[in-house]
Design brief:
The complex is a heterodimer of chains A (117) and B (108). With 117 residues, chain A is an all-beta fold. Chain A is built from no helices and eleven strands. The termini of chain A are far apart. In chain A, strand 9 and strand 10 form a beta hairpin. Chain B is mainly β and 108 residues long. Chain B has no helices and eleven strands. In chain B, the strands form two sheets. In chain B, strands 2, 4, 5, 6, 9, 10 and 11 form a seven-stranded mixed β-sheet that branches. Chain B has a four-stranded antiparallel β-sheet with strand order 1-3-8-7, with no helix packed on it. Chain B is globular and about 35 Å long. In chain B, 33% of the residues are buried. The chains are: A mainly beta (117), B mainly beta (108). Chains A and B meet through strand 5, strand 9 and strand 10 of A and strand 4, strand 5 and strand 10 of B.
Chain lengths: 117, 108
Protein backbone atom coordinates (compact mmCIF):
# COMPACT_ATOMS: atom_id res chain seq x y z
CA UNK A 1 0.00 0.00 0.00
CA UNK A 2 1.02 3.60 -0.49
CA UNK A 3 2.98 4.83 2.51
CA UNK A 4 5.07 7.81 3.56
CA UNK A 5 7.41 7.21 6.48
CA UNK A 6 8.97 10.29 8.03
CA UNK A 7 12.07 10.58 10.15
CA UNK A 8 11.93 10.90 13.91
CA UNK A 9 11.53 13.89 16.16
CA UNK A 10 14.35 16.43 16.37
CA UNK A 11 15.45 18.98 18.94
CA UNK A 12 17.53 21.83 17.61
CA UNK A 13 19.06 25.02 18.95
CA UNK A 14 18.18 28.41 17.46
CA UNK A 15 20.29 29.13 14.40
CA UNK A 16 20.80 25.46 13.55
CA UNK A 17 19.39 23.53 10.59
CA UNK A 18 17.14 20.49 10.44
CA UNK A 19 16.64 17.98 7.65
CA UNK A 20 13.46 15.90 7.66
CA UNK A 21 13.15 12.84 5.44
CA UNK A 22 10.09 11.24 3.90
CA UNK A 23 10.47 7.74 2.48
CA UNK A 24 7.82 6.71 -0.03
CA UNK A 25 6.71 3.19 -0.84
CA UNK A 26 3.92 1.47 -2.71
CA UNK A 27 3.97 3.74 -5.76
CA UNK A 28 6.28 5.24 -8.38
CA UNK A 29 8.11 7.93 -6.43
CA UNK A 30 8.93 10.05 -9.47
CA UNK A 31 5.32 10.10 -10.62
CA UNK A 32 3.90 12.44 -7.96
CA UNK A 33 4.90 15.79 -6.55
CA UNK A 34 5.61 15.90 -2.82
CA UNK A 35 4.21 18.70 -0.68
CA UNK A 36 5.51 19.92 2.67
CA UNK A 37 3.17 21.45 5.24
CA UNK A 38 3.84 22.40 8.85
CA UNK A 39 1.68 22.88 11.92
CA UNK A 40 2.81 24.75 15.02
CA UNK A 41 1.51 23.42 18.34
CA UNK A 42 -2.21 24.10 18.66
CA UNK A 43 -2.23 26.06 15.41
CA UNK A 44 -3.42 25.64 11.84
CA UNK A 45 -1.71 24.33 8.73
CA UNK A 46 0.95 26.21 6.77
CA UNK A 47 2.05 25.29 3.25
CA UNK A 48 5.82 25.36 2.73
CA UNK A 49 6.17 24.22 -0.86
CA UNK A 50 6.56 21.21 -3.10
CA UNK A 51 9.14 19.28 -5.05
CA UNK A 52 8.80 17.42 -8.32
CA UNK A 53 10.73 14.22 -7.61
CA UNK A 54 11.14 13.54 -11.31
CA UNK A 55 12.90 16.77 -12.26
CA UNK A 56 13.92 18.09 -8.85
CA UNK A 57 12.05 21.30 -9.56
CA UNK A 58 10.68 23.11 -6.54
CA UNK A 59 8.16 25.77 -5.58
CA UNK A 60 8.65 27.36 -2.17
CA UNK A 61 6.35 29.68 -0.26
CA UNK A 62 7.95 33.11 -0.30
CA UNK A 63 7.93 33.14 3.50
CA UNK A 64 10.54 30.36 3.52
CA UNK A 65 12.61 31.43 0.49
CA UNK A 66 16.27 31.40 1.36
CA UNK A 67 15.77 29.15 4.40
CA UNK A 68 14.15 26.03 2.96
CA UNK A 69 15.59 23.48 0.56
CA UNK A 70 13.60 20.54 -0.76
CA UNK A 71 15.52 17.73 -2.39
CA UNK A 72 15.04 14.09 -3.26
CA UNK A 73 17.01 10.89 -3.76
CA UNK A 74 15.19 8.84 -6.38
CA UNK A 75 17.41 5.79 -5.75
CA UNK A 76 15.82 5.34 -2.33
CA UNK A 77 12.44 7.01 -3.02
CA UNK A 78 13.01 9.64 -0.37
CA UNK A 79 12.20 13.33 -0.24
CA UNK A 80 13.90 15.76 2.11
CA UNK A 81 13.04 19.15 3.57
CA UNK A 82 15.85 21.15 5.13
CA UNK A 83 15.11 24.33 7.08
CA UNK A 84 18.00 26.53 8.16
CA UNK A 85 18.51 29.37 10.62
CA UNK A 86 15.91 27.88 12.92
CA UNK A 87 13.95 30.09 15.31
CA UNK A 88 11.70 29.18 18.21
CA UNK A 89 8.63 29.84 16.06
CA UNK A 90 9.77 27.08 13.69
CA UNK A 91 8.75 24.60 16.39
CA UNK A 92 6.11 22.52 14.62
CA UNK A 93 5.11 19.19 13.19
CA UNK A 94 6.37 18.95 9.63
CA UNK A 95 4.39 16.81 7.21
CA UNK A 96 5.18 15.48 3.79
CA UNK A 97 2.24 14.63 1.56
CA UNK A 98 1.98 13.00 -1.84
CA UNK A 99 0.20 15.01 -4.50
CA UNK A 100 -3.27 14.25 -5.76
CA UNK A 101 -4.51 16.51 -8.56
CA UNK A 102 -2.48 19.41 -7.19
CA UNK A 103 -3.23 18.99 -3.49
CA UNK A 104 -1.75 17.10 -0.55
CA UNK A 105 -3.55 13.81 -1.06
CA UNK A 106 -1.76 11.32 1.18
CA UNK A 107 0.07 12.47 4.28
CA UNK A 108 2.91 11.12 6.34
CA UNK A 109 2.52 10.96 10.12
CA UNK A 110 4.60 14.07 10.67
CA UNK A 111 7.91 14.91 12.30
CA UNK A 112 8.04 17.10 15.39
CA UNK A 113 10.84 19.63 15.28
CA UNK A 114 11.45 21.50 18.51
CA UNK A 115 13.66 24.58 18.51
CA UNK A 116 14.86 25.46 21.96
CA UNK A 117 17.98 26.80 23.58
CA UNK B 1 -1.70 36.10 -1.01
CA UNK B 2 -5.26 34.77 -0.83
CA UNK B 3 -6.65 34.80 2.70
CA UNK B 4 -9.22 32.13 3.53
CA UNK B 5 -11.69 32.81 6.33
CA UNK B 6 -13.61 29.86 7.72
CA UNK B 7 -16.83 30.13 9.66
CA UNK B 8 -18.00 29.37 12.18
CA UNK B 9 -14.97 28.83 14.36
CA UNK B 10 -16.78 26.09 16.25
CA UNK B 11 -19.90 24.17 15.32
CA UNK B 12 -21.71 22.30 18.10
CA UNK B 13 -23.98 19.61 16.72
CA UNK B 14 -25.38 16.19 17.57
CA UNK B 15 -24.79 12.96 15.66
CA UNK B 16 -27.25 12.67 12.80
CA UNK B 17 -27.44 16.43 12.26
CA UNK B 18 -26.32 18.27 9.15
CA UNK B 19 -23.12 20.34 9.25
CA UNK B 20 -22.48 23.27 6.96
CA UNK B 21 -18.99 24.78 6.98
CA UNK B 22 -18.07 27.94 5.09
CA UNK B 23 -14.79 29.06 3.52
CA UNK B 24 -14.58 32.55 2.06
CA UNK B 25 -11.60 33.75 0.00
CA UNK B 26 -10.24 37.29 -0.13
CA UNK B 27 -10.09 36.99 -3.93
CA UNK B 28 -11.38 34.57 -6.50
CA UNK B 29 -9.89 31.07 -6.32
CA UNK B 30 -8.74 30.16 -9.77
CA UNK B 31 -10.37 27.16 -11.43
CA UNK B 32 -12.07 26.19 -8.18
CA UNK B 33 -8.77 24.91 -6.82
CA UNK B 34 -10.22 24.53 -3.34
CA UNK B 35 -9.71 21.55 -1.06
CA UNK B 36 -11.07 20.43 2.31
CA UNK B 37 -9.24 18.40 4.95
CA UNK B 38 -10.27 16.71 8.18
CA UNK B 39 -7.90 16.50 11.13
CA UNK B 40 -8.40 14.58 14.36
CA UNK B 41 -6.26 15.14 17.47
CA UNK B 42 -2.78 13.67 17.15
CA UNK B 43 -3.31 12.69 13.53
CA UNK B 44 -2.24 14.03 10.16
CA UNK B 45 -4.86 15.79 8.07
CA UNK B 46 -6.88 13.72 5.62
CA UNK B 47 -7.95 15.00 2.23
CA UNK B 48 -11.73 14.97 1.81
CA UNK B 49 -12.52 17.16 -1.19
CA UNK B 50 -10.48 18.68 -4.02
CA UNK B 51 -11.45 20.79 -7.00
CA UNK B 52 -14.17 22.26 -4.77
CA UNK B 53 -16.47 19.25 -5.19
CA UNK B 54 -14.58 16.05 -6.00
CA UNK B 55 -14.41 13.51 -3.20
CA UNK B 56 -11.06 11.87 -2.56
CA UNK B 57 -10.82 8.09 -2.70
CA UNK B 58 -12.60 6.36 0.16
CA UNK B 59 -14.44 9.44 1.42
CA UNK B 60 -18.08 8.68 2.28
CA UNK B 61 -20.73 10.37 0.19
CA UNK B 62 -22.15 12.18 3.24
CA UNK B 63 -19.29 14.65 2.62
CA UNK B 64 -19.89 17.08 -0.22
CA UNK B 65 -18.25 20.27 -1.39
CA UNK B 66 -19.66 23.12 -3.41
CA UNK B 67 -18.97 26.69 -4.41
CA UNK B 68 -16.87 28.76 -6.76
CA UNK B 69 -15.17 32.12 -6.94
CA UNK B 70 -14.83 33.30 -3.37
CA UNK B 71 -17.44 31.25 -1.51
CA UNK B 72 -17.15 27.56 -0.79
CA UNK B 73 -19.03 25.14 1.44
CA UNK B 74 -18.37 21.73 2.94
CA UNK B 75 -21.53 19.87 3.92
CA UNK B 76 -21.72 16.75 6.06
CA UNK B 77 -25.23 15.47 5.48
CA UNK B 78 -25.57 13.41 8.67
CA UNK B 79 -22.85 13.54 11.28
CA UNK B 80 -21.36 10.26 12.37
CA UNK B 81 -19.43 10.00 15.67
CA UNK B 82 -16.13 9.80 13.76
CA UNK B 83 -16.81 13.11 11.97
CA UNK B 84 -16.19 15.27 15.02
CA UNK B 85 -12.88 16.90 14.17
CA UNK B 86 -11.31 20.08 12.81
CA UNK B 87 -11.83 20.92 9.14
CA UNK B 88 -9.55 23.10 7.02
CA UNK B 89 -10.04 24.56 3.57
CA UNK B 90 -7.07 25.24 1.29
CA UNK B 91 -6.71 27.10 -1.97
CA UNK B 92 -4.08 25.82 -4.37
CA UNK B 93 -4.84 27.96 -7.40
CA UNK B 94 -2.21 30.57 -6.70
CA UNK B 95 1.08 30.63 -4.88
CA UNK B 96 1.46 30.67 -1.97
CA UNK B 97 -1.12 28.04 -1.32
CA UNK B 98 -3.01 29.01 1.80
CA UNK B 99 -5.20 27.37 4.43
CA UNK B 100 -8.12 28.66 6.40
CA UNK B 101 -7.82 28.78 10.18
CA UNK B 102 -10.11 25.77 10.66
CA UNK B 103 -13.60 24.97 11.91
CA UNK B 104 -13.99 22.64 14.87
CA UNK B 105 -17.04 20.41 14.75
CA UNK B 106 -17.78 19.31 18.29
CA UNK B 107 -20.39 17.13 19.91
CA UNK B 108 -23.24 19.11 21.41
Amino acid sequence: QVQLVQSGAEVKKPGASVKVSCKASGYTFTGYYMHWVRQAPGQGLEWMGWINPNSGGTNYAQKFQGRVTMTRDTSISTAYMELSRLRSDDTAVYYCARDLAGVAGLWGRGTLVTVSS
Amino acid sequence: EIVLTQSPGTLSLSPGERATLSCRASQSVSSSYLAWYQQKPGQAPRLLIYGASSRATGIPDRFSGSGSGTDFTLTISRLEPEDFAVYYCQQYGSSPETFGQGTKVEIK
